[in-house]
Amino acid sequence: MLASGSSASRSPDGSLVPAPSEGGGQQQQPGFQVHEDNVTLQGGKRVIVHSRVVPLKPGSLHLHGLAWLLNGTAHGQAAFHIPRPISRKPGSSSKVLLDADRPAPGGMSFRVLPPMPRLEVSVTGLPAAVLAGEVVCCSMRLKNSGAMTLQHLSMAAAGTAGIFLGGGPAAGSGNGSDGIGSDGIGVAVYMLPNVRLGVGQELTLPVWFRFAALG
After folding, report:
1. Domains and CATH numbers, the chain
2. Strand 177-180 relative to strand 135-144: parallel, antiparallel, unpaired?
3. Which of 9, 87, 142, 158 has its CA 20 to 30 A from that of 202?
4. Which residue stretches belong to region Disordered (predicted)?
5. Average pLDDT per 10 consecutive residues for the chain, totaling 215 residues
6. How far apart are CA 95 and CA 121, in angstroms?
């Protein structure tokens, strides 16, 4: 895969090299990672190769084409030629058509946005059957599986869910603040402990459930 980003440049032979730092010393790393694939082709056979490029930081990512090496000796490369979309008639509901005779120059370009938060939540210790009105203590595990630090976490639950955090339903401090959800149903918002969850870090909290009705 031939790719370039905001921090990469192209050498005379067409390959990509990291751009030098302003001080002329240590070179900066490119803002993307290209995965190489090894493929064995038999005579007359066809194979589909799924190329992967992983952006490592926000900016612009340009995919120019593919480069390959045959039998360790023969180099080759081919530029991407993406067909241009054909203008549809006003009011037409047909799918977008592509004109293969008029490819767009420059391959493919992408705008890479900053990483998005990603939080995994799992609850353990919840029994398969409980009595109406019974209070059960479970463990809620939060894991930061994204690429950025998380903080100021909160949790919202339906007002009738009977959920309490902290020391349990008798402590009082575990009750959340009341609010109204987008569907008009009352919700309770709980502020989780003021901690910073780094990438890959986990946090386990006790959660109390009160099952008020049959169901």
Report:
1. 2-112 (no CATH), 119-210 (2.60.40)
2. unpaired
3. 158
4. 1-31
5. 57 39 47 86 86 87 86 87 65 56 66 87 88 87 90 77 58 42 58 86 88 71
6. 39
